Amino acid sequence: MFIPLDLTRYEVCVRQLGSALESTQTGQSVLNRTEMNTHRNALKMHTYLLCQFVDMFENELNANAKSAVGANAGRGRGAKGGRRGDRGPSDLQLCMDWFIECEKAVSALDQICRLKLDKLWDPPVAEEDFINLPANCCYKLLEDRDMASNANIRAAVTSLLATLVRRYGHSIACSVKLAQLLQCFPHMVNCLMAIVRSFIEDEKLTGVVRELLKVSFNGIDSFLVF
User: InterPro entries from the xrefs (predicted)?
Assistant: First the structure.
C-alpha cells in the first residue's frame, strides 16, 4: 500500500526559515552564528532526506519495471510489460499516487530554494554540494520517461531548475547536465523542447538556453537571436 509523503516537517522548516530570513532582510534582526548554523543544518538535513526519498522511490520503481521485463521475457514474444503503464491496477494506482507526491516534493524544494538561503553561509554563498541536492533530484526524475512525460512534474522540475539558475548560478551545470540527458535518453527530445520553451517564455532565462545550445550543438547558438 502506498504511504503518502509527509512533507509536514519540511514545510515547517520552510516557514521557520522564511520568517528568520525575512526578519534579517527588513532589518528587524540579525542572525548570530549559532542561529545561522542551526537553520543551515536543519535546511541541509531536511533537504537531503527529501531528495533521498525521491531517489530511493524512483530506484525502486525502476527496479520493479526491470523485473517485470525479465519476468515477461520468458512468456513469449506476445508478452508485454516493463513500463509503469503496463503493470497491474495496484501498481498503476501506486504510480499515479507517486506522480502527485513527487510533484509536491519538487514544489517544496522549489519553495525553499526561492528563499535567500545565501544568508545562512559565511561568506553568503550557498555551498555547491547543497545546490546539487535539489538539482540532482531534478535530473534523476528527467531520466525516467514516465516522470519526464508528466506535464505537472515536468513543470515543477523546470521551475526548480529555473530557481537554481537564477539564484545560485547553476546555469552552466544545468546546461551540461541537460545536454548529457539528451544524449542518453531518447525521451528527452520532447521533454527538453518543453523545458527550453518554458525557460524562454515563462522564466526569461535566454542565457541558459544559449549555453545549452552551445554545449549541445557546438556553437549553433551563434546563428540564433533571442
Answer: CND1/NCAPD3, Condensin_cplx_su1_N
